[in-house]
Design brief:
The protein has 96 residues and is of the alpha+beta class. The protein has one domain. It is built from 4 helices and 4 strands. A hairpin with a 2-residue loop joins strand 3 and strand 4. It starts with a helix and ends with a strand.
Length: 96
């Protein structure tokens, strides 16, 4: 959350996707249940943050041709790290 807060406060263009597992962790560990609560917890300044639905497999970040300066996967298990390094999908998780 601190990284998202810093990116938003400094107006760094940010694409945000929170998986169902991510929402579960945010809810259990931080009491944050939705975008509105996450926005409030990260300072409320989201003019540079673009939120995408995790279920939208056609969203711009899913495109292999989308230009970005980098990517953060947080939290990241060894399995997701391996999948992203190898550009493979597993179940409903696609990392390209």
């Amino acid at each position: 959350m601190r990284l998202l807060e810093m990116l938003a406060v400094h107006h760094v263009p940010t694409w945000l996707l929170v998986s169902s597992h991510g929402w579960r962790l945010l809810t259990e560990e931080c009491g944050i249940k939705d975008d509105r609560e996450l926005k409030k917890a990260t300072g409320g300044e989201w003019t540079s943050v673009r939120v995408f639905d995790d279920k939208d497999r056609g969203a711009e970040p899913a495109s292999g041709s989308a230009k970005t300066a980098g990517m953060v996967i947080c939290p990241c298990s060894w399995w997701i790290l391996w999948c992203s390094a190898c550009s493979i999908s597993w179940g409903s998780t696609s990392i390209w």
